[in-house]
Amino acid sequence: MSWLDAVKFDASGLVPAIAQDAATGEILMVAWMDRDALLRTVETGTAHYYSRSRGRPWMKGEESGHTQQVQSVSLDCDGDVLRLAIEQVGGIACHTGRRSCFFRVLRDGDWVETLPVLKDPASIYRKI
Amino acid sequence: MSWLDAVKFDASGLVPAIAQDAATGEILMVAWMDRDALLRTVETGTAHYYSRSRGRPWMKGEESGHTQQVQSVSLDCDGDVLRLAIEQVGGIACHTGRRSCFFRVLRDGDWVETLPVLKDPASIYRKI
User: In chain B, which end has fewer C-beta atoms inside a 10 angstrom radius, N or C?
Assistant: First the structure.
């Protein structure tokens, strides 16, 4: 696993990972990975992250079904940011039910929402 | 400046910012912004960041001339990551002389370089 040595995890053992739509180039979300999440991602081809709020690794889509199929993993020049080229299952990456987490754009001193809610989050995360 | 209240700077007063080519969608680099760098970016339309190593704000391209003209600023759902849609002056965002900092892709357990060096860094940063 010598490729892991090139990845510079921060003092908390984490590195940010950008999930980018492999087909459109749209940036869908940014989350954190620890070493284990990165290994699971590479081994399974499905994106895994580390939840700082829950204090544990998680597979994206483990509750919602909106998993991410990873086509490639890139590393930046400093080794401290990852980029994943992904296919977003279900077309919804954001927990708000939008395609992308980056749905607010600054215009004339205000954040303007630019993406519609495709699915009610209550129905996305409803327990069966 | 109430729009600034939506931006959640971390304990160090910083937030990561992704610079994405506004025309192609290519992710060019990720750097950090403090409140001042973000304000300068919005006010001038030219990307400013905060250098953690140098401990001060800097204008991207202040030495190299490879400035970034900002077309839009987006904020993610959690308010803790920014995305800049930019035009990269000179076509080189990375200090290694490549178009993008994300020039290494993981293939069969090794990082493979996928982008050429367009300009020798020694000539980019040569003091006149």
Answer: C
Domain span at residue A48 reads: 2-95
Into how many domains does chain A fold?
1
Residue A117: inside a domain? no
Give the mutation candidate from A7, A77, A124 for the B interface (greatest B CB count, under 10 A). A77
Give the whole-angstrom CA distance, residue B26 versus residue B74: 16
Selected for mutation to probe chain B from A32, A38, A54, A76 (highest B CB count within 10 Å) is A76
Tens digit of each residue's pLDDT, chain B (128 residues): 699 999 999 999 999 999 999 999 999 999 999 999 999 999 999 999 999 888 999 999 999 999 999 999 999 999 999 999 999 999 999 999 999 999 999 999 999 999 999 999 988 876 55
- The H or E element containing residue B123 is helix B121-124
Cα-trace Rg, chain A:
15
CA-derived radius of gyration, chain B: 15
Amino acid at B62: E
Kindly identify which residue of chain B lies nearest to residue A18, measuring between CA atoms.
B18
Please report, for the domain that includes residue A27, its CATH number. 3.10.20.810
Residue given tokens 């400035």 in the structure block: B67
Residue A122 in any domain: the answer is: no
The complex scores an ipTM of 0.95
- The H or E element that residue B70 is part of is strand B68-75
